[in-house]
Amino acid sequence: MDFTMTLYLRHYWKDERLSFPSTTNKSMTFDGRLVKKIWVPDVFFVHSKRSFIHDTTTDNIMLRVFPDGHVLYSMRITVTAMCNMDFSRFPLDTQTCSLELESYAYTDEDLMLYWKNGNESLKTDEKISLSQFLIQKFHTTSRLAFYSSTGWYNRLYINFTLRRHIFFFLLQTYFPATLMVMLSWVSFWIDRRAVPARVSLGITTVLTMSTIITGVNASMPRVSYIKAVDIYLWVSFVFVFLSVLEYAAVNYLTTVQERKERKLRERFSCSCGLPHTTMMLDGNYSESDANSLAGYTRSQTVTEEEKQEKIMVHLAMSNESNSSRKRRLGSHVGQRIMQNTHAIDKYSRLIFPGTYILFNLIYWSVFS
């Protein structure tokens, strides 16, 4: 939350004690050695963290005195000052910073500071460019600053607006996060019985999203509020995590369904073999038939020929009910064979992409 600026700071004032007669009305120029012998404004940078006057090859200070006593005092300074930035819309943010100048000792009753030509007092290099920001505009302001122990002081402001370039963050943050979310949707088209493939894909996307979030936060100040990039990354992380939970639900429901079908097959399994002591009935015999035969002994059973004849008669009588039941069982088995994906997977193929697209529309319309 700071910025570094190199500038030429030029002071103009009139000191009649320095006036001198001149027939040509030409000024006289001196270096920094004369500065210590005359009065100069004691201007300092408010909220400055560090600053220095360049001294290569000599002190970059110039003093120019005109015959009527006007003085131009110029120096080349590099200053690093504090800027209270708001990262709630990062990286789609616009920051406004200011460099503040003020007299250290003289109040507004002793020294009046003002911009000589207003906004025209600022001359910037047209070739200035920053890697992350676009400098939109510079402007000047001035106001009074009050200190309870010393009084009122004139303060000058150099204000400038910075708009962050988004393309870098699109390539490094938003695009990879979007790809990870889309990659997690691939599991919806993988067979639900391919457990290693779907689990490994889900875990990989979750870990990759965690790495992206950690990398972004490592380069950011430790702020106590949520940033715009945090919203996007954490919502993307939730989508990736939900895709893993979706397969957990699909796997569990598939296991429950297979267990029920196994019990159903065991219930409808039939056996037509006839033991010596008892007669095993298939599922086509009614309960009354089974009860009527339960009390029969070995001596009461019919001969083998009669037995086969009765079986043939009974099968002929129940042929119609047999065919209808077989059709129902065949359709059920065919449906189970053709159903390779769970219903949750089918719905997720539409719900997940549709919801994520809706989130992107809302996100970019709000923050851009």
From TrEMBL:
Q: Which UniProt keywords apply?
A: Cell membrane, Chloride, Chloride channel, Disulfide bond, Glycoprotein, Ion channel, Ion transport, Membrane, Postsynaptic cell membrane, Receptor, Signal, Synapse, Transmembrane, Transmembrane helix, Transport
* InterPro entries listed in its UniProt record: GABAA/Glycine_rcpt, Neur_chan_lig-bd, Neur_chan_lig-bd_sf, Neur_channel, Neuro-gated_channel_TM_sf, Neuro_actylchol_rec, Neurotrans-gated_channel_TM, Neurotransmitter_ion_chnl_CS
Taking the first listed entry, what is the main subcellular location of this protein, grouped into a coarse class? membrane
GO MF annotation: an example: extracellular ligand-gated monoatomic ion channel activity
TM annotation in the entry: 166-187, 199-219, 231-253, 347-366
Q: Which Pfam families match?
A: Neur_chan_LBD (PF02931), Neur_chan_memb (PF02932)
UniProt superkingdom: Eukaryota
Q: Where is the signal peptide?
A: none
Q: Where is the Neurotransmitter-gated ion-channel ligand-binding domain?
A: 1-165
Q: Name one GO cellular component term.
A: chloride channel complex
> Where is it localised?
Postsynaptic cell membrane
Q: Does the keyword Membrane apply?
A: yes
Q: Does the keyword Transport apply?
A: yes
Q: Where is the Neurotransmitter-gated ion-channel transmembrane domain?
A: 173-364
Reaction equations catalysed: chloride(in) = chloride(out)
Q: Record's family?
A: Belongs to the ligand-gated ion channel (TC 1.A.9) family.
This chain's protein is named GABA(C) receptor
Gene that this polypeptide is encoded by = LOC102373987
